[in-house]
Amino acid sequence: MEKPFLMSVEDVFCLQQGRIVMLTGRIERGRIRKGDEVEIVGLGGGATARVADIDASHVRIDEAGADMNVGVLLRGTAADAVERGHVLATPGSISAHACFAADITLLSEEQGGADVVSGDRLRFHTRSAAVWGTVTLHGVDVVRPLHGAEVTVTLAEPVALEEAQPFAFRLRGRAAGSGTVTRLPR
């Protein structure tokens, strides 16, 4: 069975006086074909659209697969309805979440790691999305550099997430650590 299509949106371009929108990014998995229906997921997305064309290095192609950098042209989608951080996917294959459980590990102090306590607002980076979130620690009062913890993260906006998905986070504008999604609400 073929894996469902998934592509992180890196950039959005408006073509032909706004009648066509091109979403650029790297295909993480699956295949996409001209004429396929796709869903825009995360950051308030949720619309579906039909693929009008696929652009690979300024050459129009009928199909693209995993690890290709492409532009996906969608007709009838407003340019302001899509932004960096959205995910383009096979409809129903992935959903957006604003809360999740995770295991995190902090960097060393020399690399930018600093103490993290419950209630800290961190900047979470997953795929091409960057969203503010609040962390709640489980079983400890503070996480020190080079240590890890189980946490619950509550994001300001829902993003497309899957279990076992890696992410990074920043604290006070500096890289602070990384983590892995362990559980999503059902």
Kindly describe this structure:
The chain has 186 residues and is mainly beta. The protein folds into 2 domains: 6-89, Translation factors (Elongation Factor Tu (Ef-tu), domain 3, Beta Barrel), CATH 2.40.30; 95-183, Translation factors (Elongation Factor Tu (Ef-tu), domain 3, Beta Barrel). Helices cover 0% and strands 61% of the residues. The protein is built from no helices and 18 strands. It has strands at 6-8, 11-15, 20-29, 31-33, 37-41, 48-56, 59-61, 63-65, 69-75, 87-89, 95-106, 116-117, 121-126, 129-138, 142-143, 148-161, 166-171, 174-183. Strand 13 (121-126) and strand 14 form a beta hairpin. The mean pLDDT is 92.
For the sheet with most strands, the description reads: 6 strands, antiparallel, barrel
CATH fold title of the largest domain: Elongation Factor Tu (Ef-tu), domain 3
* Strand order in the sheet with the most strands: 1-3-9-6-5-10
Rg is: 18 Å
The overall average pLDDT, rounded, is 92
CATH homologous superfamily of the largest domain, by name? Translation factors
DSSP E strands, number: 18
* Proportion of residues in helical segments: under 10%
Which parts are unreliable, with pLDDT below 50 for 5 consecutive residues or more?
A: none
> What distance separates the N and C termini?
25 Å
Question: What general outline do the C-alpha atoms trace?
Answer: elongated
What share of the residues does DSSP label as strand, in percent? over 45%
Number of domains: 2
Q: What is the CATH C level class of the largest domain, in words?
A: Mainly Beta
Number of helices: 0
How would you classify the quaternary structure? single chain
What is the SS-derived class?
mainly beta
Protein name: EF-Tu/IF-2/RF-3 family GTPase
Domain Translation elongation factor EFTu-like: 23-89
Organism: Streptomyces hyaluromycini
Keywords: Elongation factor, GTP-binding, Nucleotide-binding, Protein biosynthesis
